[in-house]
Amino acid sequence: MAEAHRQLEICNACRYCEGYCSVFPAMMRQTMFSAGDLTHLANLCHNCRGCYYACQYTPPHAFALNLPAALADVRQESWEHYIRPRALARAFQTHGLAIALLGSVLIAVLFATAQAIRDAGGQGFYAYLSHNLMVAIFLPAFVLPLAVIGIGLRDYWRDTGGRRPTVAELNNAFLSLAKLKNLSGGHGEGCNFEKGDRFSNARRHAHQAVLWGFLLCFLATTVATFMHYALAWPAPYGLLTPPKLFGITGGVLLTLGSAAMIVLKLRADPELGARRVWGGELAFVALLGLTALSGLVLYAATGTAFVRALLALHLGAVLTLFLLMPFSKMVHGFFRLSALIIEEQKKRG
Amino acid sequence: MTRLEAPRDGLWDVLVVGGGNAALCAAITAAEAGRSVLILEGAPKPYRGGNSRHTRNFRCMHQGPLSVLTDTYDENEYYDDLLLVTKGKTDEHLARMVIRTSEQCLPWMEAHGVRFQPSLSGTLSLSRTNAFFLGGGKALVNAYYNTAEDLGVKVIYDAQVTHVHLEGDTFTHLDVSVAGAPVERIRARAVILASGGFQSDIDWLTRAWGPAARNFLIRGTPYNRGAVLKDMIDQGCATVGDPTQCHCVAIDGRAPKFDGGICTRVDCVPFSVVVNRNGQRFYDEGEDTWPKRYAIWGRLIAGQPEQVGYAIIDAKSRDLFMPTVFPPYKADTLEELARLMDLDPAQVTRTVSAFNAACRPGRFHPTERDGLATEGIDPPKTNWARPIDTPPYYGYVLRPGVTFTYLGLKVNETARVFGRDGPLANVWAAGEIMAGSILGEGYLAGFGMTIGTVFGRISGREAAAHA
Question: Is residue A222 a part of any domain in this protein?
Fold first, then answer.
């Protein structure tokens, strides 16, 4: 926090980077920064790194600016501060191994459960785990983490000066998110992530694939729930039904997007992000990719002997992802969206 | 081995000495003409780009809106602006050529990777005359290095050129030491000198300015030590510009000795009382609006004991100027503030009391000359004179900060350097090393980049045609 504060005061005296993203115009609204201001700016930053490569004052210069890293650290600290229990957030945000371990355990448990049940009497995947059992596991595993995030966001919203959003504010924030405007570099040529001082839209596009892929998968599940309860039309669904169309498209996007994000992350300079959570971030993206890929493979394996094992793998991955929503990189989406909405409000004064 | 793949010890078509804006424009132009080009940049890679690293805009003539520029800025208005700051110390022929050519430079810059943005907030007065680089000068430098690399230009960093060999009027080779290694010889058909001025050779500055220069801060790049300029002067090349002159502004006294860049400026002077080491005022702080007086304060402070000044404001003025890179000294009493800045508290209090007593009621207007003047003190403060009486009090230490020097090589309109007996056969110059021809005194925002771009491209074209 102190380091980010030092750096922002230098940035605010320079302001050359104001065209790259929303952070600089937001920074320029004040001459002194409170903790809430810093947290807001940090969550507004998308880590495009344009300001680092354009900076006259990066090391070895005495001012030693590395704003993307300084803001990434504050951002990371803010999630670990607002999400309780903090020890859990810290453990999973930092350690990829913790994520992998939890994933493995959950997959094994689900596999053992499916083995023990042998025949749940249902159709399709429900033959291995009954619909009610799945709901009994996944509903709380989905709702409780969201509640944890909700409580954290409420505090965050208060500390960074957010108010009840208007439709226009929400519109602008969602638009910015949908286009990932803050990864455009201000000129549309993208950010400085994996190619040093050259611009590239690769990360922006990969992230968009992940975002849209995830939302499509989520939509598939939502539609399926609706069909199950409202239309009394339970799974399995054919290829040309909404759950499958959304799910497969989303799964492919999410798989490819995650793979691309991993490749880009391996090429990028780790010193320009939150160094401490590099492993946790990488494991999280891998988990996202595994969730999507195992879902696709599971669908492709329908009717084969692999279904039981693949189902356990897929559901285990989904369960891990759900449970870790507040405690993994996943949580950045909630804070980022909040920051974009609050920034819309601050712009309007 | 083809000509385009000339190795370091082979014969290059075009050798470019320096690695800032002018050097890069020259190298790119020559490479696009199909020539093999080698850039010898004196700085290590993180500091590449010379003073261009610290720039932020390009002053551009235009008829009607052009890219991010609004309205029209024509040749005569541009030239009048130049005359005003240089007080006539310019070469009208070269200056007008630069001004006219600037208009075609902007699209060229965009085509070679430079991205512009509308005028930075707080600089709206420049939205018609100056195109701002998105991300500033280092972003421009990065874009040009990438473009040059894509064109096959080879760059060697940390390359100190020690001697440029001339045989009569012809360049044959130069001596260079790369990263402290023994001196090597590089031969080429043509050479472009774009290695800047000498602002970071403190000994040279001291010879020109006197001992006071030892206390100057150099806000430009530490790598402009003028080695090539001096070498050429020693070989009888014609010079222009006053060797005792340098662009010198008041900057934060806590800025690093070198390379603090533009953000070390302190803009509070019009709202402050400025005292010297002895706690006494020495100049009218409110003579004119800051953009018009900014450039004289370096010189004023250079004339004070130990080359240092102290600007004191109170809480009323805290938000009236751009934030500073270092937080100000802050105290609840003037005595305390004086102690923090190592000044005599009694004397500072006397000076401020006398100033306060000389203030008169009236309308205060921070952004225009408001005529709110003191009465009965010397020197007077002729605008924005409000009593310094509302704690907390804030203080800034000011020192002279040198950006660049004016002494340079004389060139003609094709950027050709002049030896003892007229133009040299295959030596061109671009950028700060020759800018004194056009900018003999003062400074016009964004004009250095214009001179560098125009002469960089000319020298690249001429050298390529020769090679």
Answer: yes
Output phi, psi for A107, to 5 deg.
-65, -45
Arithmetic mean of pLDDT, B101-121? 92
Residue A101 lies in a domain: yes
Nearest CA in chain A to B322: A13
Query: pLDDT tens, A1-31?
Result: 899 999 999 999 999 999 999 999 999 998 8
Q: Does A16 touch chain B (CB under 8 A)?
A: yes
pLDDT of the residue at B124: 61
Stretch B111-127: mean pLDDT, rounded? 81
Do B74 and B159 lie in one domain? The reply is: yes
How much is the pLDDT for A337?
97
Contact B259 A61 (CB under 8 A): yes
Looking up residue A118, the CATH number of its domain turns out to be 1.20.950
Q: Is the pLDDT of residue A119 over 80?
A: no
- What pTM was estimated for this model as a whole? 0.94
CATH number at residue B95: 3.50.50.60
**Chain A residues lying within 8 Å of B318, measured CB to CB:** 31
Contacts of A28 in chain B (CB under 8 A): 121
- Does residue B352 fall inside a structural domain? yes
SS3 B442: coil
Query: What average pLDDT does chain B have?
Result: 94
Determine, for residues B121 and A20 on separate chains, whether the beta-carbon distance falls below 8 Å. no
pLDDT at B2: 37
What residues in A contact B266, CB-CB < 8 Å?
none
Residue A214 maps to a domain: yes
Q: What is the pLDDT of residues B270-287, one digit of tens each?
A: 999 999 999 999 999 999
The whole-number pLDDT of residue B400 equals 95
CA-based nearest residue to A292, from A317, A310, A268, A270: A317
| A18, A54, A187: residue with CB nearest B120 | A18
Q: Which residues of B touch A55 (CB under 8 A)?
A: 138
Stated length of chain A = 349
B240 in a structural domain: no
Contact assignment for A19 to B319 by CB distance below 8 Å: no
DSSP string, B260-293: --GGGB---GGGSEEEETTS-B-S-TTSS-HHHH
User: Among residues B401, B427, B452, which one ends one of the domains?
Assistant: B401
Task: Tell me the ipTM for this assembly.
Answer: 0.93
**Domain span at residue B377?**
250-401
Collapsing DSSP states into helix, strand and coil, what is residue A200? strand
Instruction: Give Cβ neighbours of residue A347 (< 8 Å, ≥ 6 apart).
Output: A25, A26
Written as one string, the DSSP assignment of B346-383 is: HHHHHHHHHHHHH-------TTS-------S-SS---S
> How many independent structural domains does chain A possess?
1
Domain presence at residue A261: yes
Per-residue tokens: A314: 């897929």
Using CB atoms, pick whichever of A28, A55, A198 lies closest to residue B138.
Answer: A55
Q: How far apart are CA B161 and CA B191, in angstroms?
A: 12
